[in-house]
Design a protein that fits this description.
Length: 295
């Protein structure tokens, strides 16, 4: 009788938890699959669709970033920042692809100074806080994406679009994220950085690392440029710097007391939740390929 009573009390709770986990996993899988398909098509279609994809990721992430800080009482200059961000991506792309000389980058100087001038006329309570977080968004989001665009057209000014490198890069990102998620759910017990991200574990990070390195080796068998050593090195950079990018994003959310950066991607949260590893690793992968590899 006591056993039956115990089951009657706790079983619905367990079933509810299991149902919630499965619903979240289903939602996460559907959203992730649709997003992966969209990204794959945009990368493989041509260089223009790839640049358009980067602009969409840039603008949605930037607006999400500013919305988060707006809720904290800060007022970043969103419109001016969007203009500067688009200008940076477009001018960097033109230079990287060899379409024009580097002088065109000087267009961004008045765009930067225009943000300071705009704040003069807003008469807000904390003008330099607003300016600081306006430029933080550019540094945190737009600058890394400019490096990522550069990775697609190495060597710089060659004008050659390497869709395989970008697609392989995303495969490594997805392998690292998925491996970390499932390994962490299955066997994660030791916290990686509990104060900042209480759900991340060493076991999850190790699972993500193993998956990323394995996929890097497999990718190198089909995409021979760069070679296997370079692909594994890129995977290691993504594992380390992508994790730091994730933790910095978690630090930002914790300081703002929010769970997810947004709701645009059901099961995944916002754009920053989905692309934090890309933003954290892109400048370092670009630097590695430029300094140490011939692409």
């Amino acid at each position: 009788m006591l056993i039956k009573t115990g089951i009657n009390i706790h079983l619905p709770c367990y079933l509810g938890d299991f149902s919630a986990v499965m619903n979240n996993l289903t939602q996460r899988t559907i959203t992730g699959g649709a997003l992966a398909l969209l990204i794959t098509v945009a990368i493989c279609w041509n260089a223009y669709s790839f640049i358009l994809l980067m602009l969409v990721i840039d603008l949605l992430s930037l607006l999400e970033f500013y919305r988060l800080f707006h809720t904290a009482g800060l007022l970043p200059l969103k419109k001016a920042a969007v203009i500067l961000s688009i200008s940076m991506v477009v001018t960097c792309t033109l230079v990287i692809t060899g379409k024009t000389g580097s002088k065109i980058l000087m267009i961004n100087i008045p765009a930067v100074f225009g943000i300071f001038i705009s704040e003069l006329f807003r008469k807000e309570k904390n003008p330099f806080y607003n300016l600081a977080f306006t430029f933080l968004g550019i540094i945190f989001i737009t600058s890394p994406l400019c490096f990522f665009v550069g990775t697609a057209f190495l060597p710089v000014e060659s004008g050659i679009y390497h869709s395989r490198i970008i697609f392989g890069y995303f495969l490594l990102l997805w392998a690292n994220d998925s491996g970390a998620y499932f390994a962490g759910k299955a066997v994660g017990t030791h916290f990686l950085f509990k104060r900042i991200s209480p759900k991340k574990t060493w076991e999850g990070s190790l699972g993500g690392a193993v998956c990323a390195v394995l996929v890097a080796y497999l990718v190198s068998r089909y995409f021979s440029m760069p070679d296997a050593v370079a692909w594994v090195t890129i995977a290691l950079i993504i594992i380390v710097m992508g994790t730091f990018g994730d933790l910095i994003k978690s630090l930002m959310k914790r300081s703002l007391n929010v769970k997810d950066s947004g709701t645009i991607l059901p099961g995944h949260g916002g754009m920053l939740d989905r692309f934090d590893s890309l933003l954290g690793s892109a400048p370092f992968v670009f630097s590695y390929l430029v300094l140490f590899r011939q692409v």
